[in-house]
Amino acid sequence: MTHAPVPGRTTAAPIPVATGASPGWRGVRLAMVTLLVISAVGPPALLAMLSASQSWFYPALLPTGWTADAWSAVVRRGPLARAVGTSVVLGLTTGVVGCVLAAPIGRALARLHGAARHVAVAAAVLPAAAPPIAVATGLQLTFVRAQLAGTPVGVVLAHLVPAVGVLSFFFFAVFTAYDTRLDDEARSLGASPRQVWLRVTLPTLRPQLGAGVGLGFLVSWGQVPLTLVIGGGRVHTLPLEVMGYVQAGETRFAAAAALLLILLPIVLLLVASARLVRGSAPASAPAPASAPAPASAPASAPTRVSA
């Protein structure tokens, strides 16, 4: 049924609805995604070819010969393999010890309010924000007097300075979003503060603790100035080996070591992300209980039929 228009009343024009991006914007997005993929995949692919190339001269697009000498040096117990092992041990130690030190700091920062919180967070993050070479220069004299310079222990302690700063900010964010009602309920049931921390807080934050260890590992994994100044050339890590190979003109070995520097953090980040997503996924809600079936109406008394 069609209604006649009312005199004196204007009909509103239909609002245009966007049905999709224009072809020009789609082309821009496609170009940006393509550049992002090339920038992410290109350098590792180039390093992989360089590490296995025997001879690669301009203007050849691909190496003219292939060899596995650089990767066999990683498998053998040579300087490169020892540098990888040293970097892994230093990174894991820095990550674990950094989490032990930074978790209580982050929890204390999350309990502050107002201006005190801003000042405390800035003070905790300052060692990580300062240039590493300046931190190393300030630590060197103290470490020399304490006879820690040139030792793995001294390098770990030096790596902990920026690592604790980064992890303190990380755990500050974690405890800011933490539901303290779990701790309150445990204390209401008679748990001591130590029991609450060990049996409630830490198990609840297990995925975040794993991510924190990985973050501390990454801070130590690529550290050059602190290792070079505090280690004094006695502690050989993978980044220092990359610098040495580049200065010596050993392209294959430098590319293999640089590729290891890239791949291991990528794998670690993927594992940490998977753990965080799995740990933060909400549990599936239980199926609602079905409503009880209505009681059947009582049977009526049988009708007596007269003979």
Description:
This protein has 307 residues and is mainly alpha-helical. It has a domain at 79-280: MetI-like fold (Orthogonal Bundle). It is 67% helix and 2% strand. It has twelve helices and two strands. Helix 11 runs antiparallel to helix 12. The longest helix has 32 residues, at 79-110.
Based on secondary structure, the structural category is mainly alpha
The count of strands amounts to 2
Q: Report Rg.
A: 32 Å
CATH superfamily (homologous) name of the domain at 79-280: MetI-like
Across the major sheet, the strand order is 1-2
User: What would the principal axes of the Cα set say about the shape?
Assistant: globular
Low-confidence stretches: 282-294, 296-307
Number of helices: 12
How much helix, percentage-wise, in residues? 55-70%
Percent strand: under 5%
How would you state the average pLDDT, rounded? Answer: 81
N-to-C span: 67 Å
CATH topology of the domain at 79-280: MetI-like fold
Which architecture of the domain at 79-280 does the CATH hierarchy give at level 2?
A: Orthogonal Bundle
Strand and helix order: HEEHHHHHHHHHHH
Largest sheet, described in full? 2 strands, antiparallel
CATH class wording of the domain at 79-280: Mainly Alpha
